[in-house]
Each structure stands twice: as structure tokens, then as C-alpha cells.
Amino acid sequence: MAKLQQLSFLMCAVVHLVAGVPFLKASNSGGTGRVDTHIHAIPLSYSKVLVAAGLTDIPTWSLSATKSFLQETGASIGILSISAPGVSVVGVGDEARSLARSLNVEMASYLSDKNSTAAKLGFFGTLPDWQDVEGTLAELDYLYTEQKLCNGVAIFTTYGGKLLGDPAYAPIWARLQKYKALIFIHPAGLDVVPQLIGPGLPQYVIDFLWTTTRTATDLVMTGTLSAAPDVDVILAHAGGALPYAGTRAIASLLAPSVADLVPIDIAEAQRQFGRFYYDTALSTSTAQLDGMLDFAGAAQVGFGSDFPYAPTQVVDRVADALKQFQLLNPRGPLLANPVLRRNSLKLLNKHSLGRLFR
């Protein structure tokens, strides 16, 4: 927990300096009716397997604390998901399948919780490690034909050293297309050398941004996204570096040596990159917000907090930077709170299995 607290302090300082504005608690800024699509649950069953795997920087979590957080930050809807490393922490096979199922059952139980709160809850379903293709297909079938309660599924940027557009995962994408699924892509560890930067910075400080950028580009350049036209994808943390690097990837197709490697042309690549949605979790500097507006457009952006991995004081400062952009930047109204809310509601309800948010 000490490392997590140090990271939280660092994030607070960075956001404060980059924004160049005084701190203002989100809880004091009035209700916004936010829709938070990037908020994590850490049920006890999941926490126990993380600890057993030697992972110690695990935030304290409870459903009641999550609901309090949503109220304090003016959110009316929160979509829960399991963060990295997910059920892959117990491997590939029956144990991971069982853990995914139990987490989906537990997350669904939160929807009927009667504790008083102004916020409504939803969740992105948990899947087995994609290396277990059959197990993943079975869990998708359960979520979409039996349980019918999730708002989409949460997946990670890599599985078994493979990016999401790897041909081995084509059956999974075909099933996601069948169910016209909404997908939330969250970064996981990146297999690079050296693995850690500087004195041992955890990968979520910098490398999470690169793995999101890599897998999003992979989905486009392999034609995977083109083959799943009814699937929508939310990228965490403003898409990592994608708003900056995406135009480079598109322009690379002007070079015959690159174009010959890719099954789609430059016009199709531009269309597919334009399909991604983005959340603002830990990503509200002027450069990041301008980047999303330039590369994706305002209609593709929604709010995200990353609670509880980002503690309340971090979320407050990140939200404050967003508010200052909204108020002081000429393009601020494009990302006004009602716009972000409308974007998220439209996307969630497009993929609803029967539970509509209002």
C-alpha cells in the first residue's frame, strides 16, 4: 500500500502541475450526473487470489465505499469492471474459468443491492484468459444468452504475449460480433526489455499507455475491427498514446512497403481508427483532451475515474483539470459534462441487454 500511496501522491502532483490550476474537490463542484465507465470492483474472492499471487498493492474496496464515491463525485451511473491482471492471475484453464464465472455472478448481484444511493450500477463482464478460447466463448455465451445483465465485457490488451488482433483470437471476435458487444479494453503488463523504467517504476505509470496504443493499432491493421462492424470499443486512459500516434500509423500506409503488409487500405484504416471510444481516466491534461478532440472528436469521449486504483484525491484533481479545460479552453464546451454523459448513455444503451440507463 505504501507504493500505491506514493504513486497517488505523484499523480496528484503531476496533474496539479500540468493543469496549472488550483485544486477544487469534485465533490464540491456540484452534481454533474456523470456516467463513470471506468470504475473497478475488487471483490474479496479476487483480492484473495491477487494476494496469493504475491500482489500486494491492492486498494481497499467495498461496494458501499464505491457508492459513496459515486455520490461524492456527482456520478449517477457507474460501470464496474475487474482490473488487470484479471483471472489470468490463476492461469489458463478450469480455475480461471471458475473465477470468471463467480465474478460475473457477484457483479450481477450488485445490481439488485437495495442500499440507498443516487447512483445506478452496471458492469462489464469478466472473461477467462483469451488463450483459453473455448472457455472465453463459453463465458460470452453465458453472459449474453443466460445471465443477460452485463453492459459489455472488459478485456486486456494482451494475452499470452499476443495482441488482440492475433489470428488465434479470431473465434472470439466472431462471437463478440455475433452479440454486438461493447468492449472495454484495459491495459495489462507489457512484455518489454527492460521490464521496468528507472528505479523500478511499475508498468502502470508509463507502459500501460503503450500497450493500449499497440493493441488498438493491431486491431485496425490486422483487419480485426473491420470484421466486427457491430462491436464498439472503449479504450482506457484516453487511448494511451493513440491520439498522438494514430495519424502516424494511418500515414504509414502511404508507403508501399507497409501497405503490402496490411489487409486494409488507408481509407479503411482511417475509418476504423475513428470507431474507438475513449475515457478520461487519469487523462485530463490539455494535451490529452485536445488530442482526443483532434483525433477522435467529442462524440467519442466519456468520463472515467479509475477508482479505487486512483484514490479519491487523485480523481478530484483529475476532474478539476477537466473542469478547468471546460471553463477556460475555447474548445471546453465540446467536452462539457452533459456532452460526456450523453455520449456514454448513448453507447451503453446501444448495447443494452434490456436494462436502459437514463
Automatic annotation (TrEMBL):
<dbReference type="GO" id="GO:0005737">
    <property type="term" value="C:cytoplasm"/>
</dbReference>
<dbReference type="InterPro" id="IPR032465">
    <property type="entry name" value="ACMSD"/>
</dbReference>
<protein>
    <submittedName>
        <fullName>Amidohydrolase 2</fullName>
    </submittedName>
</protein>
<feature type="signal peptide">
    <location>
        <begin position="1"/>
        <end position="20"/>
    </location>
</feature>
<keyword id="KW-0210">Decarboxylase</keyword>
<dbReference type="GO" id="GO:0016787">
    <property type="term" value="F:hydrolase activity"/>
</dbReference>
<keyword id="KW-0732">Signal</keyword>
<keyword id="KW-0456">Lyase</keyword>
<dbReference type="GO" id="GO:0016831">
    <property type="term" value="F:carboxy-lyase activity"/>
</dbReference>
<comment type="similarity">
    <text>Belongs to the metallo-dependent hydrolases superfamily.</text>
</comment>
<feature type="domain" description="Amidohydrolase-related">
    <location>
        <begin position="35"/>
        <end position="328"/>
    </location>
</feature>
<dbReference type="Pfam" id="PF04909">
    <property type="entry name" value="Amidohydro_2"/>
</dbReference>
<dbReference type="InterPro" id="IPR032466">
    <property type="entry name" value="Metal_Hydrolase"/>
</dbReference>
<dbReference type="GO" id="GO:0019748">
    <property type="term" value="P:secondary metabolic process"/>
</dbReference>
<dbReference type="InterPro" id="IPR006680">
    <property type="entry name" value="Amidohydro-rel"/>
</dbReference>
<keyword id="KW-0378">Hydrolase</keyword>
